[in-house]
């Protein structure tokens, strides 16, 4: 799965879609889920917006997507396999065909020449890009690479009191050999909502460039958040590599931001009218609650629309994500204030 294969099916269940960002790269960058928020404000990463109502679920408690310790019987000799099966079921990724059984895959249009392929292969494998340019759906990445021998070790993250080693595998990100959206039929829209965050323009730029690598020609920006779907005075902004080439050197958001907006049915009506079938939403909790509602409305209308979320937070508090954009800049600015106070 990749940027053109992400779909509402891939963003149906927040629990199961947690690792969609790692699997699809820009196609389904994660969202912050208030209903899956854990201790310390760490939220779960997923391909779909948070559910409305802000209900906090107790199914997943501690960091790493692990179950509450009290729910695990460590006296059971087979607790490790059970834990691993439970972990895999929680992070099993839905597929586009779960929602659209008639979806037909096509060969990926991702430009492999943008990569740096190696020429060395084991005997019997052709040195052709087809063999080393795409990610196999069965590829997995080890979530935790350190085997802590004791709970007292620095940074130790243990499941059981003895800090036993338990392998936890997650899907590997990257372009797949098959996609489910034809680039010539895609009209992608990008919208930034909420407040400003360092790196917004950089994310907009990379989304546009990646879509063009796939061959998508119709890319637009929705001005001033969700308001751009309801205000007739706000028109779409055509986006291309030429338009966004140097936008990452500027602060703020090229598209503008705002809070609130029209009703969900109005937004989806506008998307239908404009022919938008791929929506990239950059925002926080409230923004992704809206994205979740948009996704549900699209499903209700049986629209083949991909709603893709990018978490916008300077807090770096999203589980399973190495670093959220804007975090480094926020830390640097905080250091300036601290250093100034120290000098004073």
Automatic annotation (TrEMBL):
Record carries keyword Nuclease: no
Provide the alphabetized UniProt keywords. Allosteric enzyme, ATP-binding, Glycolysis, Kinase, Magnesium, Metal-binding, Nucleotide-binding, Transferase
GO BP terms, alphabetized? fructose 6-phosphate metabolic process
Q: Name one GO molecular function term.
A: metal ion binding
SUPFAM superfamilies named among the record's database cross-references: Phosphofructokinase
Question: What reaction(s) does this enzyme catalyze?
Answer: beta-D-fructose 6-phosphate + ATP = beta-D-fructose 1,6-bisphosphate + ADP + H(+)
One Gene Ontology cellular component annotation?
cytoplasm
Chain ranges of the Phosphofructokinase domain:
188-340
Cofactor(s) needed for function: Mg(2+)
Which Pfam family, any one of them, does this sequence belong to?
Answer: PFK
Q: What does this protein do?
A: Catalyzes the phosphorylation of D-fructose 6-phosphate to fructose 1,6-bisphosphate by ATP, the first committing step of glycolysis.
Query: What protein name is recorded for this chain?
Result: Phosphofructokinase domain-containing protein
């Amino acid at each position: 799965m990749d940027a053109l294969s992400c779909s509402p099916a891939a963003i149906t269940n927040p629990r199961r879609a947690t690792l969609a960002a790692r699997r699809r790269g820009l196609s389904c960058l994660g969202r912050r889920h208030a209903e899956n928020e854990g201790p310390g404000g760490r939220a779960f990463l997923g391909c779909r917006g948070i559910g409305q109502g802000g209900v906090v679920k107790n199914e997943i408690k501690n960091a790493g997507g692990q179950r509450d310790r009290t729910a695990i019987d460590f006296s059971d000799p087979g607790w490790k396999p059970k834990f691993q099966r439970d972990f895999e079921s929680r992070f099993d990724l839905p597929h586009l065909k779960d929602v659209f059984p008639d979806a037909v895959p096509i060969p990926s249009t991702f430009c492999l020449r943008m990569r740096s392929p190696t020429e060395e292969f084991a005997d019997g494998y052709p040195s052709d890009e087809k063999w080393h340019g795409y990610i196999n759906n069965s590829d997995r990445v080890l979530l935790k690479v350190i085997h802590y021998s004791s709970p007292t070790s620095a940074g130790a993250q243990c499941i059981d009191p003895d800090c036993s080693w338990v392998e936890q595998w997650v899907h590997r990100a990257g372009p797949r050999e098959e996609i489910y959206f034809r680039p010539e039929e895609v009209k992608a829209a990008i919208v930034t909502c909420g407040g400003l965050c360092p790196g917004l323009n950089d994310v907009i730029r990379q989304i546009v460039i990646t879509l063009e690598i796939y061959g998508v020609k119709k890319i637009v920006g929705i001005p001033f958040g969700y308001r751009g779907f309801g205000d007739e005075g706000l028109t779409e902004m055509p986006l291309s590599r030429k338009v966004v080439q140097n936008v990452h050197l500027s602060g703020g958001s090229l598209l503008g931001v705002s809070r609130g907006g029209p009703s969900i049915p109005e937004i989806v009506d506008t998307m239908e009218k404009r022919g938008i079938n791929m929506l990239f939403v950059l925002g926080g909790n409230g923004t992704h609650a809206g994205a979740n509602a948009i996704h549900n409305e699209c499903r209700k209308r049986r629209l083949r629309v991909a709603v893709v979320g990018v978490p916008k937070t300077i807090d770096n508090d999203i589980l399973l994500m190495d670093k959220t954009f804007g975090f480094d800049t926020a830390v640097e600015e905080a250091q300036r204030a601290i250093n100034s106070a120290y000098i004073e």
